[in-house]
Write a structure and sequence with these properties.
Length: about 210
């Protein structure tokens, strides 16, 4: 697998929580709970991509040379399952704008089908960082389609945040978008014939929403 822009979180709680959501006996209430905790940790790690500029303030005691984040932050959850990551990211980036993209996979050929996309008009696209929220990077088709849509409208800096990746998905993003970094909690072994990540956690959307 050739992809240098992959960051795999290393933390005992990440490994514990990922195991909980992989477990087939985990209820959908607990599944959501631990996805939410993982998404907060993922968001915290992806925040390392932000840059700072100086900001002079006055504390109650004296002048202080502080700093502030320069970028506009936009979160793009891929409907549906990407919504499971939104709350955690919103807590880390409370001032982020949320854009939505609706994509599902064709069950026969696994190609992404886009049915909705709404992105805010931002004057400063160059100074915008977009986080794509996609819990499962399987073939990578849904995330790749989202990156392409964002690039079409001029977005320059894009990060993909996922819970579990397959090598096939990571390779697909690396092949088509060398500039895009992927953050994940786990890199799994492979995809099975039906396009599911193995060992994986099953269908993320169904497990999140109890369907
Ligand atoms: C799932 C998941 C990802 C996508 C990943 O969505 O939430 O978005 O599959 O697969 P890919 O990398 O092969 O494109 P799904 O199509 O099941 O739709 P859902 O979120 O509405 O359940
Ligand atoms: N989408 C999921 O929800 N799970 C997988 O394993 C692959 C795609």
């Amino acid at each position: 697998m050739s992809f240098k822009k992959l960051v795999i979180l290393k933390h005992p709680l990440v490994d514990d929580y990922i195991t909980r959501i992989r477990d087939r006996r985990t209820s959908y209430f607990d599944f959501r709970l631990y996805v939410d905790k993982l998404s907060f940790m993922l968001a915290y790690e992806t925040a390392r991509e932000l840059s700072l500029k100086s900001r002079k303030i006055k504390t109650p005691l004296c002048d202080f040379n502080g700093c502030e984040v320069t970028e506009n932050i936009v979160l793009v959850p891929i409907l549906r399952a990407g919504l499971g990551l939104l709350n955690g990211f919103n807590r880390v980036f409370p001032y982020a704008i949320v854009s939505h993209i609706g994509i599902y996979r064709n069950e026969e050929n696994l190609k992404p089908i886009k049915y909705y996309f709404k992105f805010p008009r931002l004057r400063l696209k160059r100074n915008t960082i977009v986080y794509i929220l996609d819990p499962m990077l399987a073939t990578g088709g849904s995330a790749e389609c989202t990156v392409s849509e964002l690039k079409k409208i001029g977005v320059k800096k894009i990060i993909i945040a996922s819970l579990v990746c397959a090598p096939e998905g990571v390779t697909e993003i690396g092949r088509k978008h060398k500039d895009v970094k992927v953050y994940t909690c786990a890199l799994d072994k492979k995809l099975n014939k039906s396009g599911y990540i193995v060992p994986g956690l099953g269908d993320a959307g169904d497990r999140l929403f109890g369907t």
